[in-house]
Design brief:
Number of strands: 12
GO molecular function: transferase activity
Protein name: Pseudaminic acid synthase
Helix content: 25-40%
CATH class of the largest domain: Alpha Beta
Number of helices: 11
Shape: elongated
Strand order of the largest sheet: 5-4-3-10-9-8-7-6
Largest sheet: 8 strands, parallel
InterPro entries: AFP_Neu5c_C_sf (IPR036732), Aldolase_TIM (IPR013785), PseI-like (IPR051690), PseI/NeuA/B-like_N (IPR013132), Pseudaminic_synth_PseI (IPR020030), SAF (IPR013974), SAF_AFP_Neu5Ac (IPR006190), SAF_PseI/NeuA/NeuB (IPR057736)
Enzyme class: transferase
Radius of gyration: 30 Å
Keywords: Transferase
CATH topology of the largest domain: TIM Barrel
Number of domains: 2
């Protein structure tokens, strides 16, 4: 497994998680709103913004068949025709150059998910630093091969893909010339729930495919994403919206700016907290050792007097003998006078 460079960012275990704000269709086809979302993502501390590059016609057919209607009653988009849904959610192609350039001016890396081969060529002409394959497109091997041949890193969401399907996608990318692959654990329900996120898949996936692994998270809030860092996630992608109450196709499971800011901060903290396997305390804890317990004189003792539990106690701080010597000390004779509050040492008794 090796690190992957995307723009000026290194994706790997030695770097904090790469945070992607997915604009999706939450811009509601208002370019001013899209630009404001980029401003907010930059202010919140995201490292990248991502678009989705498709048209309704490149995504599906404008057909009356029942096959092209969403029938799941628990879906956010129940009853919608696929074609009309994608029409509402699409990011106009003519926006892409302006949004990418604006994002770069704000210090953000900008890229997109192509949903057909023509979109790959379109994005290549815009000099994107990588391509993202959406979870529902992971079985579109011709699309993966097309993107992989561009010689740029490939981020692929795994969604509901089986181990064999992920292997096919990875092998397709590698055989097409792409070795810089990042897989994202993803649960393709909208919203997803903590209970069906299965973060333990992340280290297993990293071991199985020998590549960087992250999380494309559709749960509400940031808890799942922060937890994924402990599992080794090096990339976190979250859908983003300025105001959930104002709507947007993905608003229900998208983060608002203050939540995105919290995500950036807390994933950084979680990554720092991983550290390394270490016992015995950190250098920063060295001074705290003085507040352990040790054996102290609790009542004044005369030379020759016996040391007992009545004139000694185990208390904080730790400038006397360690508590493990307690039973060795009891019954010994004091060599000298000792005052209350004096730490006990070997030279103080026979």
């Amino acid at each position: 497994m090796h690190d992957v460079r995307i723009g000026d960012r290194i994706i790997g275990a030695d770097d904090s998680p790469f945070i992607i704000a997915e604009l999706s269709g939450n811009h509601q086809q208002n370019i001013d709103l899209a630009l404001a979302m980029i401003d907010a993502a930059a202010d919140a501390g995201a490292h990248a913004i991502k678009l989705q590059t498709y048209t309704a016609d490149s995504m599906t057919l404008d057909a009356d068949s029942d096959d092209f209607v969403i029938h799941e009653r628990d879906s956010l988009w129940y009853g919608e025709k696929l074609h009309s849904l994608y029409q509402k959610a699409a990011t106009p192609y003519e926006w892409h150059p302006r949004l990418f350039e604006y994002a770069r001016q704000k210090g953000l890396i900008a890229f997109s998910s192509p949903f057909d081969e023509a979109a790959v060529d379109f994005l290549e002409d815009l000099h994107v630093p990588c391509f993202k394959i959406a979870s529902f497109e992971l079985t579109d091997l011709p699309l993966i091969a097309k993107a992989a041949r561009k010689g740029k890193p490939l981020i692929m969401s795994t969604g509901m893909a089986s181990l064999a399907e992920i292997e096919e996608a990875v092998e397709t990318a590698k055989s097409s010339g792409c070795d810089d692959i990042i897989l994202l654990k993803c649960t393709s329900t909208y919203p997803a729930h903590a209970g069906n996120t299965n973060l333990l898949t992340i280290p297993n996936m990293r071991e199985a495919f020998g590549c960087q692994v992250g999380l494309s998270d559709h749960t509400r809030g940031i808890g799942v994403a922060v937890a994924s860092v402990a599992m080794g996630a090096s990339v976190i992608e979250k859908h983003f919206v300025l105001d959930r109450s104002a709507g947007g196709v993905d608003a229900e499971f998208s983060l608002e700016p203050d939540e995105l800011k919290a995500l950036a901060i807390e994933t950084q903290r979680a990554w720092l907290a991983l550290g390394q396997v270490k016992y015995g305390g950190d250098v920063s804890e060295e001074k705290a050792k003085q507040y352990r317990r040790s054996i102290y004189v609790s009542k004044s003792i005369k030379a020759g007097e016996t040391l007992t539990a009545d004139n000694l106690r185990i208390v904080r701080p730790a400038f006397g003998l360690q508590p493990k010597h307690w039973h060795t000390v009891l019954g010994r004779k004091a060599k000298r006078d000792m005052q209350k509050g004096q730490p006990l040492h070997w030279q103080d008794f026979d």
